[in-house]
Specification:
- The mean pLDDT is about 95.
- This protein has 18 helices and 15 strands.
- The protein is globular.
- It has 2 domains: about 270 residues, 3-Layer(aba) Sandwich (Rossmann fold); about 150 residues, Rossmann fold (3-Layer(aba) Sandwich), CATH 3.40.50.
- Helix 5 packs parallel to helix 6.
- It is α/β, with parallel strands linked by helices and about 450 residues long.
Length: about 450
């Protein structure tokens, strides 16, 4: 009979097995993602043009599409050691509850105070800001995970941190705000009257609950107005995805150690950073023609960027101050309904993932909020972890795929990214438990209205 090794419930890498480099998928792509464009000249943006906004080293990473591996600086490795390796967990209990022949694994990124994978990039970005001798950083936060992560990283390195928090999250999650303040950050609800762009957005959309796109515009303006400050972003950009490759590199090393090879890899997709990070080393195998995998991006039906958006140049922010990125987008003016997965309410998608999706290397699915919470509850009851609503999008599709295996009898191996915990999302869970949660799916008219605002670039 088969001599299958017994797989531990949780696989942790030894310290000596931890990745010491990040992996840049673009280096192995034949079709590179389209370059960022200067919004005024419509020419590919240069290092110098990005310098007033971003940190130098991060711009280099952003623009580099040929270097496959980047050494992780020792100080960042040391910080990673405080909460990494993240466990790769075999979801034995979930498999049993589903009565599926599928083998389900998840990479759990919620084992740190910020409660998500965001800390992986926050510490890197804060490190490069500090290295450059800057005083502080400004940023946006949607659900609050990124702001929390950046506050933690900034206080560790002694940087000032100013966070613009999407208003609906600011109101729904006051405790997130207090975690950030505990780590020394200042937090402003967005849109606010502290910036010109915030005032403009408030005038155009009075009573708006905000969006990531608005908060990004405000944070960029705030950075530009202060000497020694730069703007940092928690998702969407290729530099962020590079840092998040630590997720996939660890997961692959842990799987290789036990001879496990996934068939399907699933991640939730907001701006694309955790998904891109999780799939990175597996996608490398696929790009090089060594192996095939099914990659599935899962997004909310209320913000269906890949499944209903258009692949086109667009602004990364509502205020149209960012460079233009070619990506799947719903239009920078699209303000998604205030769903409970704040971290997935973004109109665009990382440019590398967009190109991979356009080239057929990856699939995408959209799922409705109530079905996501149903999956979250099911998971929490058997696996113990109370998942973040964002992460639960991946859980939902992992369960669906496992149930398909039950019908067909296939023993597929499924890997999904469990990006974080949901302890600050209890208001959302309450709505679900009280049967008050609804599903909002934008109409074609609403989608078309967003797309009609795309800039003309050719
Ligand atoms: C921010 C966030 C996401 C989505 O962001 P990506 O950049 O698409 O990864 C998913 N899950 C959690 C828990 C988050 O905090």
């Amino acid at each position: 009979m088969s001599e299958e090794k017994v797989i531990p419930y949780k696989i942790y890498l030894e310290e000596s097995e931890m990745p010491r480099q990040w992996y840049n998928m673009r280096a192995d792509m034949k079709n590179k993602p389209a370059p960022l464009l200067n919004k005024d000249t419509l020419k590919p943006i240069t290092f110098e043009e990005l310098q007033p906004v971003f940190c130098d080293e991060l711009i280099k990473q952003e623009l580099d599409e040929t270097t496959p591996y980047f050494d992780i600086p020792q100080e960042i490795l040391d910080f990673y050691k405080m909460y990494r390796p993240a466990p790769l967990v075999r979801a034995y209990c979930l498999e049993k509850a589903l009565d599926t022949p599928a083998k389900i694994y998840y990479k759990f990124e919620g084992n740190n105070t910020s409660g998500s994978h965001k800390l992986n990039s926050a510490i890197a970005q804060a490190y490069y800001a500090k290295e450059q001798g800057l005083k502080g950083v400004t940023t946006e936060t949607g659900a609050g995970q990124w702001g929390t992560a950046l506050s933690m990283a900034s206080s560790y390195l002694g940087l000032d941190c100013n966070v613009y928090m999407v208003k609906c999250s600011y109101e729904q999650k006051p405790f997130r705000r207090e975690v950030m303040r505990t780590y020394g950050a200042s937090v402003t609800p967005s849109p606010s009257t502290t910036t010109e762009v915030g005032k403009r957005i408030l005038e155009a959309h009075p009573g708006t609950t905000g969006s990531l796109g608005c908060a990004i515009s405000e944070a960029i303006e705030a950075a530009g107005n202060k000497e020694g400050y730069r703007y940092v972003l928690g998702s969407v950009l290729n530099q962020v995805m590079l840092h998040q490759s630590i997720i996939g590199l660890e997961a692959k090393a842990a799987m290789d150690k036990y001879g496990i090879d996934p068939d399907i890899i699933i991640g939730c997709a907001g701006g694309g950073s955790n998904l891109g990070g999780l799939i990175a080393p597996f996608m490398r195998e696929k790009l090089l023609g060594n192996k095939d995998y099914r990659f599935i991006a899962v997004e909310p039906a209320s913000c269906p960027t890949l499944t209903r958006g258009k692949y086109a140049y667009d602004y990364c922010d509502t205020g149209m101050v960012c460079p233009l990125s070619k990506m799947y987008t719903l239009g920078s003016g699209f303000i998604p309904s205030s769903s409970h997965a704040g971290g997935l309410r973004y109109h665009g998608m990382n440019s590398t993932l967009s190109q991979l999706y356009a080239d057929g290397y990856m699939e995408a699915m959209s799922v409705e909020q109530t079905s996501v919470f149903e999956a979250a509850q099911r998971f929490a009851r058997v696996e113990g972890i109370l998942p973040a609503p964002e992460s639960s999008h991946a859980i939902k599709v992992a369960i669906d795929e496992a149930l398909k295996c039950k019908e067909t009898g296939e023993e597929k191996t499924i890997l999904f990214g469990l990006t974080g915990t949901g302890y600050f999302d209890m208001y959302a869970y309450q709505r679900y438990n009280d049967g008050e949660m609804g599903d909002y799916v934008p109409s074609d008219e609403e989608i078309n209205a967003g797309l009609a605002g795309l800039p003309k670039v050719d």
